[in-house]
Amino acid sequence: MKRYKLSVVAGAQLYFIASITAYLLLLFQFGTKCDNVRVAGLTVSYNGTATISHDEHSLVSQCNQNCSCSVTEWNPVCSDSGITYTSPCFAGCTSSTGQGKNTVFHNCSCVLTPSPVDGSKSVSLGQCPRGPECTQSFTSYMAVSVLSFFINSLGTTPAYMVILRCITPELKSLALGVQTLMMRTLGGITAPVYYGAFIDSICLKWGMKKCEGRGACRMYDSDMFRVIFLGLFTCLNGCSYVFAIAVIVLLRKQFSKEEVRALQQTASKRNETELQTPNMCISDGSKTDIRSTENTTEITHNSVVG
């Protein structure tokens, strides 16, 4: 602001322009989509049809209903068809080979195959990998985020300068302290609470603690996660621009009155100067006339004496 000699109103407008530009860029992140992992009973049915289920009992199907599987178990296995099963039991497997991470389960009755003859009825440990589109979406998301945060940072310093210029010197420290307190209270304490509550509501599979209690979420609905996370940020950030516009309007009114007052004072001083100038000229002229009269009198007196 000092380099370009920006006024308080111009500084507030610079902050608003930088912030709204960054805000519009973040809207492009809604297009960075990553599809859900195909998990039988959660995101797809055991027939391969896409569906979303928050009920753990949907993990039970005709192919595994006689296996007495635990719905709280999370030991994902991946089939050649790209469908993940929450455990070898829910995949309907009856045998296994190998040890540790190299374990392969066979004769899995729930695994879909192109035909009864062709295709493998085996699954391997681990969740099936996501598609390449997720990597591309992540790259786009990070690029937009970096560009948006950079543009938004251009308005940070003008925003602080507006605060400092609008407050009397003895109250500047208090104002910055109150601002920091509000930011930490609303953004650092309450935000994780309601953000966490909304995100927990889209969990598809919860883990269980050893002491019988709900643990961490094993799997989220990716589509709803994107909508809720970005939607909350967009709504909260959008509401803040109402106050930003109100501040700019108030600053314009306040400083326009001050400018008018300053112009009026300048005009009045100019008028006073113009009114005083002729009087001084007359005064000087009178003094000149008096001096010339005195000189003439002296010359006449000297000539008479001479």
Automatic annotation (TrEMBL):
<keyword id="KW-1003">Cell membrane</keyword>
<comment type="similarity">
    <text>Belongs to the organo anion transporter (TC 2.A.60) family.</text>
</comment>
<protein>
    <submittedName>
        <fullName>Solute carrier organic anion transporter family member 1C1-like</fullName>
    </submittedName>
</protein>
<dbReference type="GO" id="GO:0043252">
    <property type="term" value="P:sodium-independent organic anion transport"/>
</dbReference>
<feature type="transmembrane region" description="Helical">
    <location>
        <begin position="12"/>
        <end position="30"/>
    </location>
</feature>
<dbReference type="Pfam" id="PF07648">
    <property type="entry name" value="Kazal_2"/>
</dbReference>
<keyword id="KW-1133">Transmembrane helix</keyword>
<dbReference type="GO" id="GO:0015347">
    <property type="term" value="F:sodium-independent organic anion transmembrane transporter activity"/>
</dbReference>
<dbReference type="InterPro" id="IPR004156">
    <property type="entry name" value="OATP"/>
</dbReference>
<dbReference type="InterPro" id="IPR036058">
    <property type="entry name" value="Kazal_dom_sf"/>
</dbReference>
<dbReference type="InterPro" id="IPR036259">
    <property type="entry name" value="MFS_trans_sf"/>
</dbReference>
<keyword id="KW-0812">Transmembrane</keyword>
<dbReference type="Pfam" id="PF03137">
    <property type="entry name" value="OATP"/>
</dbReference>
<keyword id="KW-0472">Membrane</keyword>
<feature type="transmembrane region" description="Helical">
    <location>
        <begin position="227"/>
        <end position="251"/>
    </location>
</feature>
<dbReference type="GO" id="GO:0015125">
    <property type="term" value="F:bile acid transmembrane transporter activity"/>
</dbReference>
<dbReference type="GO" id="GO:0016323">
    <property type="term" value="C:basolateral plasma membrane"/>
</dbReference>
<keyword id="KW-1015">Disulfide bond</keyword>
<feature type="transmembrane region" description="Helical">
    <location>
        <begin position="138"/>
        <end position="164"/>
    </location>
</feature>
<feature type="domain" description="Kazal-like">
    <location>
        <begin position="57"/>
        <end position="112"/>
    </location>
</feature>
<feature type="transmembrane region" description="Helical">
    <location>
        <begin position="185"/>
        <end position="207"/>
    </location>
</feature>
<dbReference type="InterPro" id="IPR002350">
    <property type="entry name" value="Kazal_dom"/>
</dbReference>
